[in-house]
What does this fold into?
Amino acid sequence: MKAIDVRTPMELLLVEDDPGDVVMTREALEDSKLLIELHVVSNGEEAVAYLRNEAPFGDAARPDLVLLDLNLPRLSGREVLEIVKADPGLLRIPIVILTTSESEEDVLRSYELHANAYVTKPVGFESFVSVVKQIDDFFLSIVRLPGRQRAG
It folds into this structure.
């Protein structure tokens, strides 16, 4: 696989059904050091269709990172995670669980399903934005992702 130039926008898929959290995530990513193309789907079925380039997402860009809520309509985040990590064509896409759940059972199950990280959404705008910026800094600036050279 050929490495992508770091000047190419990072493709980030946000799987989130709360419009407020979508707005806060967009705002947090506006200050990113990298070019980020944010794509948003609002339920688990759309997430799987997006990742598999199924209708209506036939031309969707392959994400470099997925931020996945657990509590979604249609298919839960757990179900999405299980489907993605069982698919040889998708399993290398890093998935960060970003959810309100603090349940130890959810944490353990997410890692058993091969989530790359589990982050509990903080309450409050400033804290939420700070957490998203830290995810951005870590996964999109520090970590080397498959098919991409590290920025900087």
